[in-house]
Recover the amino acids of this structure.
């Protein structure tokens, strides 16, 4: 699980049938201080996130199956929450 910022959206007319009707977003991982790492990846949106949102991302196949209600999903990275704020104590 990691925190990321949505930096873009992918539009695809041809994709796996299990992804039909699902929004694909590009997320950039953030450090614990909320700074971009430069590392980005594709994630399926399950919470109606949008560009610029800070999100909580699961990166594990079994969790993706539970969140999407698919037995054997063709994905492993899923956005599961929109983060309103983060407080880090030093």
């Amino acid at each position: 699980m990691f925190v990321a910022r949505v930096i873009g959206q992918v539009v695809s007319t041809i994709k796996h049938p299990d992804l039909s009707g699902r929004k694909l977003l590009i997320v950039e991982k953030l450090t614990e201080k909320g700074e971009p790492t430069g590392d980005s990846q594709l994630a399926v949106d399950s919470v109606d996130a949008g560009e610029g949102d800070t999100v909580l991302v699961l990166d594990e196949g079994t969790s993706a199956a539970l969140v999407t209600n698919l037995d054997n999903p063709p994905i492993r990275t899923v956005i599961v929450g929109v983060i309103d704020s983060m407080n880090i104590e030093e």
